[in-house]
Amino acid sequence: MSEPAPLLRTRALGVGLAGRSFCRDLELTVRGGDRVAILGRNGAGKSTLLSVLAGLRQPQAGEVLVDGARYEQLGARASARLRGWLPQDRSETFSSTVLETALVGRHPHLARWDWESERDVRLARQALAAVGLTELERRDVQTLSGGERQRLSIATLLAQAPRLYLLDEPLAHLDLNHQMATLELLVALARERQVACVMVLHEPGLALRFCTHALLLFDDGRVEQGTCDEAISSDSLSRLYGYPLREVTDQGLRWFMPA
Predict the structure, then answer these.
(1) CA 251, CA 76: separation in Å to the nearest integer?
(2) 32 vs 7, 39, 127, 162, 188, CA distance in Å?
(3) Domains located in the chain, CATH noted
(4) How many CA atoms lie within 13 A of 37 on its CB side?
(5) Which residues, 6 or more positions from 163, have their beta carbon under 8 angstroms from its beta carbon?
(6) Residue 207 needs a FRET pair 20 to 30 A away by CA distance; which of 113, 160, 196, 227 works?
(7) What is the pLDDT of residue 129?
(8) Residue 139 pLDDT > 70, yes or no?
(9) Cα separation of 236 and 49, whole Å?
(10) pLDDT at 50
């Protein structure tokens, strides 16, 4: 049985910012169902790489293909139907309700002058329910806590229903309960709908538990990648973070702690 065509592919990709190169000649292939964790130290270029993969920043070299096409070939609306983007930093400048904000995710699916339909509202409400925000749909977003805003951002992506999720620190501001619920939700999406997720994470143990592949981004621009079992080890993580780590195994789960 042949493998499905990749949702995301890079060819000889080079990424840099302010005269610094973060990765060179990156060959990355992501298919439906894949969950890829990007790991690395602060300042290693994880967010910059993810923004290039989202088509929001030009690469230094090479190209990014989404469903076999470059972003400029797809155009903004078709790109937004294919890939969803969760940035690390967001702000709500204007007052709006939680439901109105979630409905923004439906805009790529509407024609220029269309209003949201009953179906769009239903999908937005389903997305809010998936992250536990049903009771807050009439609340002003400016009154939400940081964790509630993060969950709303994830709900907005769910309403958008892309096939490729690019998530910059999706667990930021979330308590432990919601961190686990978010990762379980992403796993379910990947398995049931064959979406792909590429996400920046800071906990290698969570990457091992919830992701299929890992991309290790080193300070000097080197990249190591593979399945999580192949790429994540006490040796590779010690080199990645510049501090010795040792592996602890409990009930079949692998975790890492400072040596």
Answers:
(1) 46
(2) 6, 21, 20, 11, 12
(3) 8-67+163-258 (3.40.50.300), 95-161 (no CATH)
(4) 26
(5) 7, 32, 67, 82, 83, 194, 195, 196
(6) 160
(7) 98
(8) yes
(9) 20
(10) 97
pTM tops 0.85: yes
Q: What is the pLDDT of residues 188-240, one digit of tens each?
A: 999 999 999 999 999 999 999 999 999 999 999 899 999 999 999 999 999 99
**Does the pLDDT at position 254 exceed 60?**
yes
For the chain, the C-alpha Rg in angstroms (whole number) is: 19
Determine contact, residues 155/131, Cβ cutoff 8 Å: yes
Up-side HSE of residue 42: CA atoms within 13 Å toward CB? 0
Kindly give the residue spans of alpha helices, DSSP state H, lying in 20-169: 46-53, 71-74, 76-82, 98-103, 118-130, 146-160
- Which residue bears the tokens 């973070």? 241
Structure tokens at 10: 């890079």
Task: Collect contacts of 18-21 with beta carbons under 8 A, ≥24 apart.
Answer: 20/45, 21/60, 21/221
Helices and strands: H and E segment counts in the chain: 10, 12
User: What is the Cα–Cα distance from 29 to 67, expressed in whole angstroms?
Assistant: 11
Tens-place pLDDT, residues 30-52: 999 999 999 999 999 999 999 99
Beta-carbon contacts of residue 244 (< 8 Å; ≥ 6 apart) = 238, 258, 259
pLDDT surpassing 80 at residue 94: no
